[in-house]
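Handout, section B. The chain below has 163 residues.
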Amino acid sequence: MEFDEEILKDFLIEVKEGIERLEDGFIRLERGEREVLKELFRVMHSLKGAAGFFGFKALEQVAHASEDILARLRDGLIEPTDEIIDMLLKAVDYIKRIVKHIEDKRKEPIDDELLDFLIELTTFSDKIVKKEETKGETKKELLEEVEKKKKLKKEKRYNFISS
């Protein structure tokens, strides 16, 4: 794909600034500063959109899967565990690698290592969603059980008082 050199140059500058913000943000997150999650999400969202505009599919997919994880963190649906932060940092490393390749060759790298990582990241993101859904179902089942017990307790109390 051919791009106006100035527009591509602006894109690369913007992406590199975003990468710096991501790296700084993840350091803050590791220190327990949860308020940084909104900024991390916004940066990843912007990166995804810019990559999509230029047709950089691999970059867009890495950013999209990372954005999904960040959305769940931001919304408090999951906790920022070491495993999750490590995966997001790994995604940032791949984003840097992709951007470097775009800068040097004016196209994305397409190799087995990148494709393997895309599968790993997507699988990881899907696993988080499944855990979250399972947790939600378990919570719902527990609440239903509590309600049944409350109702049964009321019925027993009523029957005791009535007799």
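Note. Helices lie at 5-30, 37-54, 57-74, 82-105, 112-162. Compare this with the example in section A.
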